[in-house]
Specification:
Helix content: 25-40%
Structural class: alpha/beta
Largest sheet: 7 strands, mixed
Low-confidence stretches: none
Order of helices and strands: EEEHEEEEEEHHEHEHEEHEHEHHEHE
Strand content: 15-25%
Shape: globular
Number of strands: 17
């Protein structure tokens, strides 16, 4: 029987408001598709929605409760009357926010989905919109990069940062990835070894010094933490470089502060800006966006892009303690503990 995680009220503790429900399998109406989800991520945006701190709300309900999950990948099972651009078996991703991907099945308007090529691993489809696309756009749109250039980024173990390092390597651009300090030396070396597959240099935050920029043209800093860690990134930049903030993992919200020096502004003439993936996507047509998703999928299927470190959580329909497992994954995603990997629901219907 189809299942969904739903919520009726918002809370900063997402696990306290979510529950697993069963519902009747829907039938597609005119211009609708019946789909089954294959994988869906737990993104920071989803947690903001559950906390009532995001302006866009879930668009779909089950039994008068909202269905969270903005991103995921699904397969078309049945097409309703009037649907000509899809057929059963197609692999699709959401093309509108708030679709409600934390469920096994859904009937949705065909216009809310985008078809992508088949995937060698459906987990990649789950991170296409909020992982792969932002990583590509941060490199493509924020600064002209040439082979031999260097970039520096924090939150190096994050999904976007890992993918940035992969895209940079494909372009002949070198990467310095900064990670949070770790007490466990064995864990530290293990993490560094994984990240060094693509990043040229991996440093703990306490190891980062401006001297790292010697004999390197570091033209782009990508910051998703802000605060003192971001200031260290800026100190490493070369003349006329670009500093881009795309997150506030360090906390503080809109009131967070950042110190810029006379050298940053006047001597080096560094440009400071912010990145929003929706803003950059608005600059592209639907055809261009589809082309990028197809290209990303081709790169992945060809082995030129790899999955970043993820934690796959089985959504095994019929499992007795399934709700506890799913809520455990949400709680882990909300913890921000060092070493926590992105949680991905992977649906198993057997």
């Amino acid at each position: 029987m189809p299942q969904a995680l739903t919520y009726s009220g918002t809370s900063s503790d997402a696990t306290s408001t979510l529950r697993l429900q069963e519902f009747d399998c829907p039938c597609p109406q005119k211009d609708e598709l019946l789909i089954k989800f294959l994988a869906a991520p737990i993104n920071p945006l989803d947690l903001l929605v559950l906390a009532g701190k995001y302006p866009v709300k879930p668009a779909n309900n089950i039994l008068d409760e909202k269905i969270p999950g903005f991103d995921g990948v699904a397969q078309v099972i049945e097409c309703g009357e009037g649907v000509g651009s899809f057929e059963p078996g197609d692999i699709v991703i959401p093309d509108r926010p708030g679709l409600g991907t934390w469920r096994t099945h859904a009937t949705v308007q065909a216009t809310t989905l985008m078809k992508i090529p088949p995937l060698s691993d459906v987990a990649f489809g789950a991170i296409l919109k909020m992982g792969v696309m932002p990583a590509y756009l941060l490199l493509e749109d924020m600064k002209t990069l040439r082979p031999g250039d260097w970039i520096i980024q924090n939150a190096g173990t994050g999904v976007i940062a890992q993918l940035i390092a992969q895209f940079a390597k494909l372009r002949g651009v070198h990467t310095i990835s900064v990670i949070r300090d770790r007490k466990d030396l064995q864990d530290l070396e293990s993490v560094k070894a994984v990240l060094r597959r693509d990043a040229d240099i991996v440093l703990e935050d306490s190891e980062l010094r401006s001297e790292i920029s010697k004999d390197k043209r570091i033209v782009l800093a990508l910051d998703s933490v802000f605060g003192s860690t971001a200031e260290k990134l800026a100190a490493c930049l070369s003349d006329r470089a670009m500093f881009v903030n795309y997150g506030l993992l360090g906390g503080g919200g809109p009131a967070a502060t950042f110190s810029m020096t006379h050298e940053h502004i006047f001597w080096k003439q560094i440009t400071f800006g912010c990145f929003r993936v929706t803003r950059q996507l608005e600059l592209r047509s639907e055809v261009e966006r589809k082309g990028l998703y197809h290209w990303f999928t081709e790169l992945f299927n060809a082995g030129l892009l790899r999955l970043p470190n993820l934690e796959i959580v089985g959504w095994n329909v019929g499992q007795g303690d399934l709700e506890a497992d799913l809520l455990g994954a949400v709680g882990k995603a909300q913890s921000h503990d060092i070493g926590t990997r992105k949680q991905i629901f992977k649906f198993d219907f057997e």
